[in-house]
Amino acid sequence: MTVVSDTTAITTLLKVGQADLLAKLFGHLIVPQAVEDELLAFHSRLPEFIHLHPVAKGTRRLPGTESLGRGEAEAIQLAKELGASLLITDDRKARVAAEAVGVKCAGLAALLVLAKQRGHLNSVSELLDALAQRGRFHLPQTVRLDTLRAAGESD
Q1: Out of 51, 66, 73, 112, which residue is the most buried by the measure of CB atoms under 10 Å away?
Q2: What is the pTM for the complete model shown?
Q3: 52 and 11, same structural domain?
Q4: Environment class of residue 133 by beta-carbon count within 10 Å: exposed (0-12), middle (13-18) or buried (19+)?
Q5: CA-to-CA distance for 148 and 125, rounded, in angstroms?
Q6: Quick one: 30 and 100 in the same domain?
Q7: What burial letters (b/e) apply to 57-85, b meaning 16+ CB within 10 Å?
Q8: pLDDT tens digits along 95-129
């Protein structure tokens, strides 16, 4: 399974010491140069499961990605180039642009549900609390409730 990620999910999980969840779910993640640059601006080193793969078409952006940050735009372009099974992004505009070019997306909340379903996580609620407190990751209340229901938890 080829999985490409933008910055948010990785950096948020790194902040709370839970980045290994991504390795448990996918084995490795592929990131473009812009995402690696963004991650290294805030983290001294990256986990070994993160693999750099530059976009083949240089800086030319896909249609619909002009208003996105460089990391999101390159992640979408790389996912498209590689025929990735999944793009991990929490940016709403990035999801719309990715889906418009046929790239399937999932956000961090969905990954937490998947991690629990696969037995890698005991409590989505507790991790969401930690992510909010230490990772500055906040979900709208309705999304949080939907996520907890999907995980078989109540808030």
Answers
A1: 112
A2: 0.92
A3: yes
A4: exposed
A5: 7
A6: yes
A7: eeeebbebbeebbbbbbbbbbbbbebebe
A8: 999 999 999 999 999 999 999 999 999 999 999 99
Tens digit of pLDDT for each residue in 85-102?
A: 999 999 999 999 999 999
Q: Are 58 and 98 contained in the same domain?
A: yes
For residue 137, the one-letter residue type is: F
Q: How far apart are CA 33 and CA 70, in angstroms?
A: 9
Place of tokens 């409590």: 123
CA distance 92 to 12: 17
* Domain total in the chain: 2
60 and 104 both lie in a single domain: yes
Note down the domain range covering 125: 112-150
